[in-house]
C-alpha cells in the first residue's frame, strides 16, 4: 500500500467547502485501491494575510515540496486587495514552483444542462503556459498623477517556456486525437506571439503525427462556442489560456465544473490542483457551492501520481452523480447542497 | 437634399462581395429620404500590396478625409503576410485617423438561429479602445536565434485614450440602460489595467446616473455566454474588445452578423465602418458570404452622419429579411446567396 501525502490549501470563501467535499472522496478512492491518504492542511489565504500580513509564509514552496501534490481551494475575500492574494499565493506558487503548464480539461457530463446547444461529447483540454507572458508582473507607470499617466505592461514570452508547454501539448494531442490548436494573436502583436508561432511549429517537427492548426484568439473565442467539437487540445499563453478556460467551462455547465492542474512534468515537484473558479464570496458559507470542479481536480491529481484506478473511481462517481438532477447544485439549476453532492459521490463510489 | 460622400474600401476575399451588397441598400435608403449617395472606391488591400508593395498609399488618411465616412469590407489573402495588411491598412487607418473607439453592437435578430440558448432580446454594445493598449506595436526580441529567444510585447495604456473611450461608454450607457461593465484583468496585470480601473472610476463621477461594474476578462468571457442579458454596454481595451466582440457575435448568429464603427466622436474625421468578420478566403468568390454585418455597419454609418431615418430603413429591412429563413446564408444554416439577401433587403425597403 502506498501513502499519498497531500498538502491542502483550502483558502477563502467556498475554497474550504469544496475542499472538504473532495478530500473524503480522494481518501475513499485510494483506500478502495488499497492505498492511503495523508493530509497536511495549510491555513494560507486572505485570513492569514489579515492576521500576519502575508497570504503564505516565505518558505511556502519548501513546505509543499514535502508533499506529493497540493490540493488548492480558492483565495480572495472582499476585504483584502486581490493582488495580495493572487501574487502572494496563486501566481506566487505557480511561479515559485516553476509549474510550467496549467492543464484545464473541459468535458461535458451527460445530464448537466448548458447554455450552449449540442455540447454532447465535448471533451477538450487547454494547455496553458503558466509562468510568464502577460503574468510576469513587469512594466510600470510614466507621468503618474500628471493627468497624462501611462500604464505600461510588459509581457515576456521565452522560447524555453513556450517549448516546455508545446512539448506537453503535442504529447497530449498525440495520445488523444492528433490535433493541436495553437492560439495566438500574431496579426496584432509583433514579437511574443510570432515567437510562439515559430517555436511551436519547430517543436511540432518532433511530433509528425500531430496536426498543428494556428488560430487567432478572437476567432478561437467564437469557435469555442460555435464549434467546440472541432477542438481537442489547445495550446495558449498564460493570458489567453486564462480567458479561454473560463469560456470553455461554459460548455460543461459553468465554472463549477472546471478542474485544473498546475504541473511541471518530468520533475520532482508537487503539482498544484485547483478548481478554475474563485472564492465566490457571494455564496460562501451557505453550503451551496458546486464541489465538482474541485473533485475533478483531485482526480487529475490522483492520475498524475500514478493512481489511475483511484482517479477513475472519483471521475466515474462524479459522472454517475451528475446524471441525477437531484444532485445538481444551484449553478446547474438544482438545489442540492455541497454536502449532498459530496455524500452522493461517496456513496456511488 | 444632402449628399453623403462615401469612401469605399472593398478590400480582399469576401470584402468586395459584402460591400457590393451593401452600397445599393445605403443608396436606396438615402434616396427614400430625399438624399443622395456619392461613392469613391479605393482598391486598397492585398492585391495592391502584391502589385505595388503597399496595401494603401502613403496619403490614404488624407484621401479618405475628403469623404464623410468610409465603408470597409475586409482585407487578408493567403499569399500576403497578414501583418502587412493589418498594420498597412486596418490598424494603420484606425491609428492614423486616431479613431478613438470601436463600437461593436451585438443584437439578436428574431428568426436567426444561435448556438447559445435564450438569446432573445440580447442587445449589447462593446466600446473598444481603438488606438493603443496591446496594439501599439511596441516591444522586441532579445537573444534572437540563440535558442534562448525572448519575445517582449509592450502594451501602453494612456489616461487620455482611456478617458476618451470611457466618456463614450458612459454617455452611451446613459442613453441606454444606465449600466456599464468595465472589463480589465487587474488581478494579474499590475499597471495598465489598474490604470483603467482608476481612470474609468474617475470619469464615472461625471455620470452619476450610470452604474459602473468592473469584471475580469476571464469571468466576462463566461458571462457573455451564460448571462448575456445581464450586459448592456461594455468598455474594454483594444485586445479585450477584440476577443469579446468575436465572442459576442455568436449571440447574434456568428461573425456574419456583427457590424462595427471606428469613430472619433466630436471631431471632423470620417469614421471607418466595417463588418467584424475578415476576408474569409475559404468562401470568397462563391457569392455565399453573409452581407448582414456589412449592411448593419452601413446603418451605423448613416446614423452617425445624422441620417437616422435612412439607417432605420436599412436595419428594419435587414430584420424583416432575416425573419424568413429562406434568406439565410450558409453561416446561418441556410442556402441563400449574398445577392439573394441583398435583393431581399432592397425589396423590403
Ligand atoms: C486569480 C487569477 C490571477 C487566476 C489567473 O488569471 O490565472 C485565475 O483567473 C485562474 O484562472 O486561475
Ligand atoms: C485583423 C485584426 C488585426 C483585427 C483586430 O484585432 O482588431 C480584427 O480582428 C478586428 O477585430 O477588427
UniProtKB/TrEMBL annotation, chains A, B:
Isopropylmalate dehydrogenase-like domain: residues covered:
5-345
Specify the superkingdom. Answer: Bacteria
What's the protein called, per UniProt? Tartrate dehydrogenase
Q: What Pfam families does the record tag this protein with?
A: Iso_dh
Alphabetically sorted, this entry's keywords are:
Manganese, Metal-binding, NAD, Oxidoreductase
Looking up SMART domains in the UniProt record yields: Iso_dh
Which cofactor names does the annotation list?
Mn(2+); Mg(2+)
Keyword hit for Nucleotide-binding: no
**Protein species of origin:** Streptomyces yatensis
Amino acid at each position: 500500500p502506498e501513502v499519498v501525502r497531500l498538502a491542502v490549501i483550502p483558502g477563502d470563501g467556498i475554497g474550504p467547502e469544496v475542499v472538504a467535499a473532495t478530500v473524503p472522496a480522494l481518501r475513499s478512492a485510494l483506500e478502495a485501491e488499497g492505498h492511503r491518504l495523508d493530509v497536511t492542511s495549510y491555513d494560507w489565504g486572505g485570513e492569514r494575510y489579515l492576521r500576519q500580513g502575508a497570504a503564505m509564509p516565505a518558505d511556502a514552496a519548501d513546505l509543499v515540496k514535502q508533499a506529493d501534490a497540493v490540493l488548492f481551494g480558492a483565495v480572495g475575500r472582499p476585504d483584502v486587495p486581490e493582488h495580495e492574494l493572487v501574487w502572494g499565493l496563486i501566481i506566487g506558487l505557480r511561479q515559485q514552483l516553476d509549474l510550467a503548464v496549467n492543464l484545464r480539461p473541459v468535458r461535458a457530463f451527460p445530464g448537466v444542462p448548458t447554455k450552449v446547444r449540442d455540447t454532447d461529447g465535448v471533451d477538450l483540454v487547454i494547455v496553458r503556459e503558466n509562468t510568464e507572458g502577460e503574468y510576469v508582473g513587469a512594466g510600470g507607470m510614466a507621468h503618474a498623477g500628471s493627468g497624462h499617466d501611462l500604464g505600461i505592461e510588459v509581457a515576456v514570452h521565452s522560447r524555453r517556456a513556450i517549448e516546455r508547454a508545446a512539448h506537453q501539448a503535442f504529447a497530449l494531442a498525440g495520445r488523444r486525437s492528433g490535433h493541436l490548436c495553437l492560439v495566438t494573436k500574431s496579426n496584432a502583436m509583433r514579437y511574443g506571439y510570432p515567437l510562439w508561432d515559430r517555436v511551436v511549429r519547430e517543436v511540432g517537427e518532433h511530433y509528425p503525427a500531430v496536426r498543428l492548426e494556428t488560430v487567432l484568439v478572437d476567432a478561437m473565442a467564437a469557435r469555442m462556442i460555435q464549434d467546440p467539437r472541432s477542438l481537442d487540445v489547445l495550446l495558449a499563453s498564460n493570458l489567453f489560456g486564462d480567458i479561454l478556460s473560463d469560456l470553455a467551462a461554459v460548455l460543461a455547465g459553468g465554472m463549477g465544473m472546471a478542474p485544473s492542474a498546475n504541473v511541471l512534468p518530468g520533475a520532482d515537484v508537487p503539482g498544484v490542483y485547483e478548481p478554475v473558479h474563485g472564492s465566490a464570496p457571494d455564496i460562501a458559507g451557505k453550503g451551496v457551492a458546486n464541489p465538482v470542479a474541485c473533485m475533478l481536480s483531485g482526480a487529475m491529481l490522483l492520475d498524475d501520481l500514478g493512481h489511475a484506478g483511484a482517479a477513475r473511481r472519483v471521475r466515474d462517481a462524479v459522472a454517475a452523480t451528475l446524471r441525477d438532477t437531484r444532485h445538481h447544485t444551484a449553478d446547474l439549476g438544482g438545489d442540492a447542497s455541497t454536502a449532498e453532492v459530496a455524500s452522493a459521490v461517496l456513496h456511488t463510489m
